[in-house]
Amino acid sequence: MRDHILFHVNGREHQVRAAEVFTTLSNYLRYGLCATGTKVVCEEGDCGACTVLVRRAATEEYRPINSCIQALHQLDGMSIVTVEGLRDGENLSAVQEAMVACHGAQCGYCTPGFVVAMTALYEKHDRVDEKQVRDGLTGNLCRCTGYEPIIKAALAVDGASAAKMRDRYPDLPEAGDAVQTDRFFAPSTLDDAIAWKRDHPGCTIVQGGTDVGVWVNKRAFNAPAVLSLTKLRELDELREEDGVIVAGANVTLAAFERFIEHRIPELFRILNIFGAPQIKNAGTLIGNIANGSPIGDTLPYLIVADAELELNGGARRVVISDFYKGYKQFDLGSDELITRVRVPIIRDTLKLYKVSRRRDLDISAFTAAFRLVMNDGAIESSRIAYGGVGPLVLRLPKTEAFLAGKRPSLELFTEAGAIARSEVAPITDVRGSKEYRLQLAENILPRFWYDAFEVQR
User: How far apart are CA 234 and CA 379, in angstroms?
Assistant: First the structure.
């Protein structure tokens, strides 16, 4: 067992010990290595100025993440490339050259993050189209409205002749063994992880850290102990089994999104606007579940699909709707970990909704999932889940019962909307007023009728 974290930065090995493992990657780069090309602005993972590339396994390409909300202990065994590592000696990379030629910078403060995120696009492609560019740069904000030349620069790159970072920096440190230092533990066996959680009440389990990193930066959060499951290779699994997707605790939202594109296209559509590539490359599906937020974007689908959580490697299973006992209260023992989620592939009529102040990279104000089983033109049964209207993602039993046995019509779903409104109790916060959310709860039902039935005619 090691007492230090081991990772590469631009091909050079680094070791970090003791309390320093809780330092954010961005601060380590800027103050520890004087690699000040990585900028820090929002410290929330929203702006992308701090973007770096990381590679976790030899079979993966480099992917962008936000370094401002990644602690060093999350990077054990990884290879990191910063904007300083993109050029070859004195020669700029193809992406950097394109940004110069197309004048893809104004104040320049956000430019390194754009360059790094753009480089990630060409790790996977030799050419990209405008949609790929816009999707790939969703997590990067330009305060000088310089998007047009930046997009032109991305489209101008010839990726076929450009050096790939996976070829420039192919090596990963040998770091498969367990690590324990200060208040941090990354075990190599599930039994050790369970025992450590049991013996450290109140410990925080950090996988992607996309929420915890914000707590640290904005709330001065200091966990009494931190547990990582990243070395448990059995939790990397992502497979389909008899119409069910099995995803381990280490599966990122980005990997899950790619896997379901043609299996659950409606959920894929929602995940596409869930967050930026930098967020989805770090955050995990089970992290989103364990966070227990009433506006968690994956939860409405998982609830109407009757997803199951496997605890402690399958020692116990819990249907996800039974897992939540109250706000941030879970059916999870002190000696239990969520190790996998089993996600059924829904073939019934299905629609998912996310309402937020902006389309991309925003926290939801309201979410909804509708699943109908149809029989001879009538609704045999329905499952409806709303988020953002109570302390939990809520099922709507009265509305579901009202719809059963009836034929879909605008009038039916308009009346159902009034019933749905009576079943929720939202609050007012920065993302929307109580009255706004009540109106959404009502209006989304006739909208669903139009999307599911009227547009098909």
Answer: 41
Count the helices and strands in the chain (H runs, E runs): 17, 20
Phi, psi of 310 (to 5 degrees): -95, 125
218 contacts 44 by C-beta, under 8 angstroms: yes
Per-residue pLDDT tens over the stretch 232-273 = 999 999 999 999 999 999 999 999 999 999 999 999 999 998
d(CA 301, CA 371): 9
Q: Quickly tell me which residue has 């925003």 as its tokens.
A: 362
Query: Taking every pair of C-alpha atoms in the chain, what is the biggest distance, in angstroms?
Result: 71
Mean of all residue pLDDT scores within the chain: 94
Structure pTM?
0.95
β-strand partners of 354:
367
Q: Can you tell me the distance from the alpha carbon of 404 to that of 310, in angstroms, rounded to the nearest whole number?
A: 31
- The half-sphere exposure of 347 on its side-chain side, counting CA atoms within 13 A, is 2
Residue 115, pLDDT score = 96
Helix runs in 183-241, H state only:
190-199, 212-219
Nearest to 448 by CA among 422, 417, 407: 417
Q: CA–CA separation, 151 vs 278, rounded Å?
A: 18
Q: Which amino acid is at 424?
A: V
Please name each of the domains of the chain with its CATH number: 1-231 (3.10.20.30), 233-344 (3.30.465.10), 349-456 (3.30.390.50)
CB atoms under 10 Å from CB of 401, counted, come to 12
Per-residue pLDDT tens digits for 362-401: 789 999 999 999 999 999 999 999 999 999 999 999 999 9
Which residue in 35, 31, 28 sits closest to 84, CA to CA?
Answer: 35
